[in-house]
From TrEMBL:
Coiled coil: none annotated. Substrate binds at residues 19-23, 31, 35, 63-65, 67, 69, 186, 192-194. The keyword Cell cycle does not apply. It comes from Pelobacter propionicus (strain DSM 2379 / NBRC 103807 / OttBd1). Its cofactor is Mg(2+). This is Isoprenyl transferase. It holds the Pfam family Prenyltransf. Keywords: Magnesium, Metal-binding, Transferase.
Length: 251
């Protein structure tokens, strides 16, 4: 395996953490055991991303569609989330990592929101990596809410229709202030983005692996990052336009 180039890592990495339940079912275990093992993988990924110097890490932790799962599983997931945040906040402080949350938080239980508020407040002074948790998040819902906020600003005279652009529309999204992801990883073999960051992923490099999230190791992580570094990111240009051979010799 090639070695990682520290100069060519994604600035913003997004991950759809999929396969916890399947991992557990394959082992004749309860689904919550898979989620518990998945939380251990989260710890590893956050630590490794921090050590590599990745500036933004966004994890799809709970989608707006996940509320339709069995109530007992949803309650267990909320309890696991609250426990994770409480346990890991001290480590985030040591690592200078800032918590951020996107999604419809009004759907979350009160005690979970209180725990999130405290963690966000406590880590707001940190200036290192930003760890964003997407909770009760859906991309279509985010876009519709952004359009509603934009429409209100037009109605109130804060902005005119002629002022609307790709750049300023992004400021109405939950991720306003964050750069768009350079790289998206999805585990467990599903090859779709599942209503995640629909606007933000327009030019993101996508990577899919058959590995279930609890089995996603540092080696698997590095393998994905090496694949990212093999990509040619043209953003509509030709290869010749971005090739080093076309740069002036004194550049």
């Amino acid at each position: 395996m090639r070695e990682l180039d520290p100069e060519r890592l994604p600035v913003h990495l997004a991950i759809i953490m999929d396969g916890n339940g399947r991992w557990a079912q394959q082992r004749m275990l309860k689904r919550i055991v898979g989620h518990q093992r998945g939380a251990e993988t989260v710890n590893m990924v956050v630590e490794h991303a921090w050590r590599l110097g990745i500036q933004y890490l966004t994890l799809f932790a709970f989608s707006s569609e996940n509320w339709s799962r069995p109530a007992i599983e949803v309650r267990a997931l909320m309890s696991l989330l609250k426990k994770y945040i409480r346990k890991e906040t001290a480590r985030m402080m040591r690592k200078n990592i800032r918590y951020n949350v996107i999604g419809n938080r009004s759907d979350l239980p009160v005690d979970v929101n209180e725990t999130l508020d405290e963690a966000i407040k406590q880590t707001s002074v940190n200036t290192g990596m930003t760890l964003t948790l997407a909770l009760s998040y859906g991309g279509r819902q985010e876009l519709s809410m952004a359009a509603r906020r934009l429409a209100c600003d037009v109605r109130d005279g804060k902005i005119t229709p002629d002022d609307i652009s790709v750049e300023n529309f992004g400021t109405y999204l939950d991720t306003g202030g964050l750069p768009d992801p350079d790289f998206l990883i999805r585990t467990s073999g599903e090859m779709r983005i599942s209503n995640f960051l629909l606007w933000q992923l327009a030019y993101t490099e996508l990577y899919f692996t058959e590995t279930n999230w609890p089995d996603f190791t540092i080696n698997e992580f590095n393998k994905a990052l090496i694949d990212f570094q093999s990509r040619e990111r043209r953003f509509g240009k030709t290869s010749d336009q971005i090739s080093p051979r076309n740069k002036p010799s004194n550049a």
